[in-house]
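User: My advisor asked me to double-check a structure prediction for Glyoxalase-like protein before group meeting. I don't want to rely on an old file, so could you generate it fresh from this sequence?
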Amino acid sequence: MIRSLGIDHALVCVNDIVAVRDSYLRLGFLSRGFSQHPWGTSTTVLIFRDQLFEIVGIGDPALLDGHEAGGFRFGRHVEAHLAQREGVCLTALNSADAAADAEALGRRGVTVTGTIDFGRAVTRSDGTPDRTRTQLKILANDRHPRLSLFACQQFRRDLIEYPEWMDHPNGVTGIAGLTVVADPEDTAAVVDWFERIHAAKAERLDPRTLRIATARGGWTVTDRAGFIARHGTIPNMLADATLPSVAAIDLMTARPADVAEKAAAAGLEAHWIDDALVLPQADRLGGVVLRFGRFGT
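Assistant: Sure, here is a fresh prediction for Glyoxalase-like protein from the sequence you gave:
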């Protein structure tokens, strides 16, 4: 059951969507293939129950101005951030009722930038044609654009969650959380943004790190030194990046050792921090560090 405004999926923006998807396939994920948004971005997804892991690139530049919402152009947003570097440029939040969530966010002082309604033609496993229907409430963060969000209501989740594509060989069942790296002077504003979005108070984990719980998963906000303490390293492409931004994704699996074996076979660096497996080669993973562990499984 969808609980509104939990983490649905991060959009990992990449230059070579085929190569990055191949890295994830070699780590033991399943993926149906590629499709395209009506605003010109290409997409491939890893499917979980009530969550996705989405990898996006530029598919058709001629469509990037489409589906404008309150001045926000989804395709141009991806393009602009991809011009800087790969990585997460937007994050989707679950919504069972996007209109009601928008009203609730307004009462908490969060402005909805605009609304996008769209659908895509799909083919069911049995060959039957059908069509998805989705509504997005855009929550643009002008001060920290890479922390922009959108509430995502999928009216036809049955056309997204194909059971045969959700049983990943590596045992991953979903996203446990996202880690944001922020300079100390930005931390208060970042935490306030997430607290208002989720109507939750931040919990301090250590002097450098705070966590904000959502209806599904959570946000961890830390600085560069705090990130290194939790992940063992910070890749140069993230250490030198314009902050704040999502730098790591926590993925739930009861079998992180299986992921370690697949990473070794794929030639991907991996190391253990406590009981979590960390894959730090952001240049091969779409501009993010991955952390695999039980995380409540």
